[in-house]
Design a protein that fits this description.
The complex is a heterodimer of chains A (296) and B (319).
Chain A lengths: L2 H6 L3 H32 L3 H5 L13 H7 L2 H33 L6 H13 L4 H10 L6 H7 L4 H12 L3 H9 L4 H12 L1 H17 L2 H6 L8 H11 L4 H7 L6 H36 L2
Helix pairs in contact in A: 2-16, 4-16, 5-8, 5-9, 5-12, 5-14, 6-9, 10-11, 12-16, 14-16
Chain B lengths: L1 H52 L12 H4 L6 H8 L1 H21 L1 H11 L4 H12 L6 H11 L6 H8 L11 H29 L3 H9 L4 H12 L1 H13 L6 H7 L5 H4 L2 H11 L3 H32 L3
Helix pairs in contact in B: 3-16, 4-9, 4-15, 5-9, 6-9, 7-13, 12-16, 15-16
Classes of the chains: A mainly alpha (296), B mainly alpha (319).
Chain lengths: 296, 319
């Protein structure tokens, strides 16, 4: 049934309902999109136009001055590079721990399997909390270190359980065939399970990437050294502290950027990579949510 | 005597058998345990070791003495906490903010899912979904940055619109009476779209023959939505509601840390931000750990209760 011939069969009331519904969804969609357009427009408008309150939807007096200002700040590039290190390093370490762990937990021949699984799942319900976690990181000597951020947040129960459920659903015949050929566990995982679990793996990978890219609280708490902070922490400093920054304020008189255009420009720079991977994220999370939702 | 000897030897032989089996088992399956080891070690080092550290909630923690050697003080920190107006306020704010998010935010994804389901143009549907899911993937810092920019007193779009309508500018983010509205509204804006996925999945599972017979009976689309789709996804709605109530102590505190300031603490300060300030900023680790333990225990009980109820509900439900 195509959209048009379907519509012709509708009664007047149904047609009105369909169009009203479309209108409401369109309104909601626009209101979701608008703040991003607003910030993008601010970032490419002239500072004075923004200060004068002229920018509401589209750019006024187009200029890239704010981006010039942002991109010429070495601290921006340092934090951008750090975010890439945390995102790529963190995602790789996460997968190296989660994938073999989930495989082992999915195998019926694992002794005490029920207890291992309970040990993982318990952490979803009970968590020691912020302070003991922080003190533990400090006692491990992981404050102010790349390693601390990368390893300390590598795992979580949800990802392991999601992947374990997927592995458990793989029919035993696949594994048996590989065992006949004399494959060991590592070979079975690598040659049978990983290729079969590609959608689940893609979902977990993308979740890891997005979480890493966006994470800011623990980076803010654990990192004191400015040269190690990720983009989100740098962005937070700009958003919350730029108005008090005298050296920045002194450049504003002659500049074609303003406080608002500069912070908008940094926000856009941080959103762009998310937008670039978003098509893959969107494709896989539908499946991922289903997988996770089926069982506990 | 003989009996005892006998039973000892059978116990011994069971032990021997068991250890023999374990050696054989490990010889055969050592690879599995090697694969499991990093996960288990990670959970012990990063999640279970801090649980041992939780004892400082009952101790006078000194950085120099360390967790184990600091002296016990019993429930002193809990007495201090419940004498502290700020902590009581933080509990109230947590429940208020979460409650408001639940009341105003919970129906939105359901309505959105029902509305998406009624769109017959697939391209329009796909585009709209792609856009409304997006804010979920944007960091709290950026969402807060957008809020700060849009609500700024002289240049923000909200105040510009107020001015255009003849009202004076309001410095929203310094006004305690506005904090909850802004925070809850932002949360709905960010999460409603993504939250609709669960309900859309439930909608997709509705038996199509129900609609076919409704069409034969001359039902309108609105009637079908109201009388077929909604009742059919009711179990999912109920379960999601129970889960949400179970997580009521969980608030997006990253966003609060970005948006609140001393002027708005009276409505904005929640348990986790209180812990953050007392513990990580003022270094009162033991007191903050006690607040965290209180929070974790209540949250645990709520989640367990919610889980038990949802299991019962889903058993008797359509699936």
């Amino acid at each position: 049934m195509s959209f048009k011939e379907n519509m012709n069969l509708y009664s007047k009331g149904d047609k009105a309902f369909v169009y009203l519904n479309m209108f409401l969804v369109a309104m909601f969609t626009i209101s979701t999109l608008y703040p991003f357009i607003y910030v993008a427009s601010l970032s490419v408008s002239l500072g004075d136009a923004v200060t004068a309150g002229k920018v509401v939807l589209t750019p006024v007096d187009f200029t890239l001055a704010a981006y010039d200002k942002v991109l010429s700040d070495p601290a921006f590039w340092t934090s951008y590079a750090n975010t890439f290190i945390y995102t790529i390093g963190g995602t790789i370490v996460s997968l190296l721990i989660i994938v073999p762990g989930a495989y082992a937990l999915s195998r019926p021949q694992l002794a005490g399997r029920k207890y291992w699984n309970m040990m993982i799942a318990f952490t979803m319900w009970f968590n020691a909390g912020m302070i003991p976690f922080f003190l533990n990181m400090r006692d491990l000597g992981l404050l102010d270190s790349y390693i601390g951020i990368i390893i300390g947040f590598a795992c979580n129960a949800f990802n392991i359980i999601l992947l374990r459920n997927f592995f458990e659903a793989v029919p035993a015949s696949f594994e048996e065939a590989a065992r006949m050929d004399g494959a060991n566990d590592f070979q079975v995982l690598w040659q049978v399970f990983i290729p079969l679990a590609k959608p689940a793996l893609a979902t977990i990978t993308l979740f890891c990437i997005v979480a890493r890219w966006n994470g800011f609280f623990w980076a803010m708490v654990l990192l004191r050294d400015e040269s190690k902070v990720p983009l989100q922490v740098y962005l937070r400093q700009i958003i919350t502290q730029l108005t008090d920054d005298d050296t920045f304020a002194s450049t504003l008189i002659t500049a074609s950027y303003s406080y608002e255009t500069v912070s908008s420009a940094i926000m856009i720079c941080s959103i762009i990579p998310v937008l670039l991977i978003y098509p893959w994220v969107q494709k896989s999370f539908n499946k991922g949510i289903m997988l996770g939702g089926v069982k506990e | 005597m003989e009996d005892i000897n006998n039973s000892l030897s059978t116990e011994d032989s069971i032990l021997v058998k068991k250890s023999k089996w374990l050696v054989m088992h490990l010889k055969k399956e050592w690879q599995l345990y090697l694969m499991l080891a990093p996960t288990i070690i990670w959970f012990i080092v990063f999640l279970y070791k801090p649980m041992y550290g939780l004892q400082i909630a009952f101790k006078d923690y000194s950085v120099f003495k360390g967790i184990t050697s600091s002296p016990w003080v019993g429930l002193e920190h809990f007495y201090t906490l419940f004498d502290n107006d700020q902590f009581i306020r933080a509990i109230q704010n947590t429940v208020m903010i979460s409650g408001a998010s639940l009341i105003f935010g919970f129906p939105v994804p359901i309505i959105l899912a029902l509305m998406f389901n009624e769109i017959i143009n697939p391209k329009f549907k796909r585009t709209a979904q792609t856009i409304v899911y997006l804010p979920h993937f944007i960091s709290a810092v950026i969402i807060a940055g957008i809020v700060i920019t849009a609500f700024a007193p002289s240049t923000g779009v909200i105040n510009l619109m107020l001015n255009a309508m003849g009202y004076d500018s309001v410095y929203f983010l310094t006004k305690p009476e506005w904090f909850r509205t802004i925070f809850v509204g932002t949360g709905i804006w960010q999460e409603a779209g993504f939250g609709s996925i669960v309900f859309l999945a439930a909608v997709a599972g509705v038996n199509p023959s129900l609609y076919e017979s409704a069409v034969v009976d001359g039902a309108s689309r609105f009637q079908m939505m109201y009388k077929i789709t909604l009742p059919c996804i009711l179990p999912t709605i109920l379960i999601m509601l129970i889960i949400r109530i179970g997580n009521i102590l969980e608030v997006g505190f990253e966003m609060i840390i970005m948006l609140y300031q001393p002027a708005t603490y009276e409505t904005a300060d929640v348990i986790s931000t209180f812990i953050y300030r007392q513990g990580l900023q003022a270094a009162q680790y033991d007191l903050a750990a006690a607040a965290g333990l209180f929070n974790a225990v209540i949250a645990f009980l709520l989640v367990i209760t919610a889980n038990t109820i949802s299991k019962r509900v889903s058993k008797t439900s359509l699936w």
